[in-house]
Amino acid sequence: MNLKELARTLGLSPTTVSRALNGYPEVSSRTREKVQAAAALHGYVPNHQAQRLATGQTKAIGHVLSLAQNDMINPIFGDFIAGAGEAYAELGYDMVVSVAREGNEEEAYRTLVARNRVDGVVLHSPTATDARIALLAELDIPFVVHGVAPGVSSPYSWLDINNFGAFERATKLLIDLGHERIALLNGPKGMSFATDRLAGFTQAMNKAELPIEPGHILHASMTEPYGFDSTTELMARPDAPTAFLSSSMMTTIGVYRALGQLGLEIGRDVSLVTHDDMLSFLPNSGDVPQFTCTRSSVRRAGHRVVEMLISQITEKTEIPMTELWEADLVLGRSTGPAPGHRP
Amino acid sequence: MNLKELARTLGLSPTTVSRALNGYPEVSSRTREKVQAAAALHGYVPNHQAQRLATGQTKAIGHVLSLAQNDMINPIFGDFIAGAGEAYAELGYDMVVSVAREGNEEEAYRTLVARNRVDGVVLHSPTATDARIALLAELDIPFVVHGVAPGVSSPYSWLDINNFGAFERATKLLIDLGHERIALLNGPKGMSFATDRLAGFTQAMNKAELPIEPGHILHASMTEPYGFDSTTELMARPDAPTAFLSSSMMTTIGVYRALGQLGLEIGRDVSLVTHDDMLSFLPNSGDVPQFTCTRSSVRRAGHRVVEMLISQITEKTEIPMTELWEADLVLGRSTGPAPGHRP
DNA sequence: GCACTCTTTCAAAGCGCTTTAAAGGGATAC
DNA sequence: GTATCCCTTTAAAGCGCTTTGAAAGAGTGC
Predict the structure, then answer these.
(1) Is A103 left (phi over 0), alpha (psi -120 to 50) or beta?
(2) Dihedral (C-alpha) A125, A128, A131, A133: value to the nearest 10 degrees?
(3) Nucleic acid strand D within 7 Å of B14 CB
């Protein structure tokens, strides 16, 4: 059943039927009701392609999942997408996901835009000077970045958590507990969130006039073995840290595993603060969570990023929107006074 | 630049230009080359919507990500999508992802199909008698299921790993090592993979004439705390198991954590075999992996499922395709003879 | 009853492409 | 020179919807 047939059935013109269904005002409410009833009765659903061609809007948003860093797929992707998907469902948009190999990303964005497949784009995991931002600006397509790229001077829309503040506070918490040798298991070098976290950490250490041991600062993709291996290694050093800051729950589990293997009790022998993206398959909840953490829901972020992007598209505003979310600092069972420290 | 303009520029008709670009034979090679050169020069890219409307094909495949089981997002989603995305990129298709809340799934599929949004659908995580299979058959749209639904009698296309065989072999391995009390930390009840794994486990136990302790068989979403909590609980029982079978790396990490906390050495005091989907952020690799496992790449599965689906669409074949992959059984460092057992 | 305004409906054009049916143009054969 | 055939190109009709501009109908005031 298409529009023409439905119109004929009703003895109306396609124009009127189209308007009735799309909520245009220049149609009487009696007619509108009749049309809606008939559409429901015959199970009429407008053809998506035709609508898109006629309106010139795709009602779709693109996400490019890039397999850049050694083929690792970011585990937050699933939860981010879930949040985004909810927003899409609410707002009547489609989500088009493409996968690009490293180096192919520009190509992926270009064709997405040139072929008119999407009305906007969500950008993930920016680096400090991410070239994709300039590209999207040049392509003149609305986009929102999940994360901020401090090295990009032109304005653009983004949503991020306050990585600097979160890690500064987390570090300060550990310092207040008497820890002086703190290891930072950071995300991959270049990622702007990792840069910010390191800066927050550094600031807190500097303020407390504590030296930073370069060997205590590591960068890598946030896998479980990364946490395990680097903890094992760090704890074998003569200047082993008494506390750890971990950039993700995934890595944290590895830290936990390593400390367990070494027979160390977490929260007593060694303290640990992790960032918790609230991934559904890695819960760290309860009144007193297992791990003390800086916490922010990546799923909520996905939802919000999409809302921002779509409001930009529908309102055709050129003014960039930015949101900086504070992460909660939640005390769990993985932090305690430094060994030998008298509070 | 659109087709008409390009045609005018070249002094040709839109028909010829269209044919030249789409590789139709009834165009001279001289003309074709000229057209291709001009298209490249002017950066002409056909409008996606128009192409789709004219051909009636969407060149898009739908994935419905369902948030059914207590809002948990399956961590394999990211890797599956990555594999699928590679195939889409190779074959020139788009991937449309929609998120459906529990109960809304039927609706999600119906509109996806009715609006002519996609040419086919990939179905994830079927239950034994999954109703979505009948729905998609009724909607008469090509689909491939990732996983098999043993309770559905009508034929359909699927790709699955041999969950039964994998867990039978894994159980047998443990039995051969002298283990008699084996716990199975299975996936959620109802999921067909979980049913198959239980059946494989049961068969191996029965063949060895070993009793199955009902309390040793657990079902839940495969989170890390699930592994941790159930292991802690099981190990406190008087009939504590000497070996564990775990359905996912995520849960396995929790088991590992619990055993570490109890001061038990894995591979000596307690053995553990896990299923390993080869998720990129949960590697279990190396010559001798950390964990003995049944292994199959979910990413490769994603790639293959898409190939199957698209070949079905393009070849218009009604004959269902099915593939049952054997999982590798890889010996790692988490298995050893049962305590007190003399081989 | 007429002129005028509003409201409601419609015919037709257009979105940018594909594809069918037909025409044009050489080349070959007689 | 004309007829025949094949190769190449084209005009025009869709695909199913939206939207513009115009017409028809329904009220109002005089």
Answers:
(1) left
(2) 70
(3) yes
Cβ atoms within 10 Å of A210's Cβ, excluding its own: 15
CA distance A170 to chain B (A): 24
Q: Terminal CA-to-CA distance of chain B, rounded, Å?
A: 76
Q: Is the CB of B189 under 7 A from strand C?
A: no
Nucleotides of strand D under 7 angstroms from a protein beta carbon: 7-12, 14-21
- Superfamily (CATH) of domain B163-297: Response regulator (3.40.50.2300)
Residue extents of the structural domains in chain A: 3-46, 60-161+298-325, 163-297
Interatomic distance A41 CA / C11 C1' (Å): 27
Bridge partner list, B322: B158
Fold of B3-46: 434 Repressor (Amino-terminal Domain) (1.10.260)
Residue A154 burial (CB < 10 Å; 0-12/13-18/19+)? exposed
Q: Tell me, in Å, how far CA of A22 is from C1' of D26?
A: 24
**Nearest residue in B to A45, CA atom:** B115
A53 CB less than 7 Å from any atom of strand C: yes
Could you say which residues 201-220 of protein chain B have a Cβ atom less than 7 A away from any atom in strand C? none
Going by C-alpha positions, the residue among B296, B307, B248, B306 that lies closest to residue B272 is B248
- Please return the burial class of A101, using the count of CB atoms within 10 Å of its CB with bins 0-12, 13-18 and 19+: middle
Whole-angstrom Cα distance, residue A123 to residue B141?
32
Q: Chain C: nucleotides under 7 Å from a protein CB?
A: 7-12, 14-21
CATH 3.40.630.10 fits A60-161+298-325, yes or no: no
DSSP state of A265: P
B16 touches strand C (CB under 7 A): no
Q: Which residue among B50, B75, B88 sits closest to A53, beta carbon to beta carbon?
A: B50
- Residue B211's identity, in one-letter code, is P
User: Is residue B253 classed exposed, middle or buried when 0-12, 13-18 and 19+ CB atoms within 10 A define those classes?
Assistant: buried
pTM score above 0.70: yes
Q: How many CA atoms lie within 13 A of A310 on its CB side?
A: 21
Residuewise pLDDT in 10s, chain B (343 residues): 899 999 999 999 999 999 999 999 888 989 999 999 999 999 999 999 999 999 999 999 999 988 865 567 888 999 999 999 999 999 999 999 999 887 788 888 888 888 889 999 999 989 889 999 999 999 899 999 999 998 999 999 999 999 999 999 999 999 999 999 999 999 999 899 999 999 999 999 999 999 999 999 999 999 988 999 999 999 999 999 999 999 999 999 899 989 988 889 899 999 999 999 999 888 898 889 999 999 999 999 999 999 999 999 998 788 999 999 999 999 999 999 998 876 6
> Could you check: is the Cβ of residue B9 within 7 Å of any atom of nucleic acid strand C?
no
Of the candidates A75, A88, A221, the beta carbon closest to that of B78 is on A75
Copy the structure tokens of residue A183: 């290891």
Two domains, one topology: B60-161+299-325 and B163-297: yes
Are A49 and B116 in contact (CB < 8 Å)?
A: yes
Task: Give the minimum alpha-carbon distance from A211 to chain B in angstroms, rounded to a whole number.
Answer: 32
**CATH fold for domain B60-161+299-325:** Rossmann fold (3.40.50)
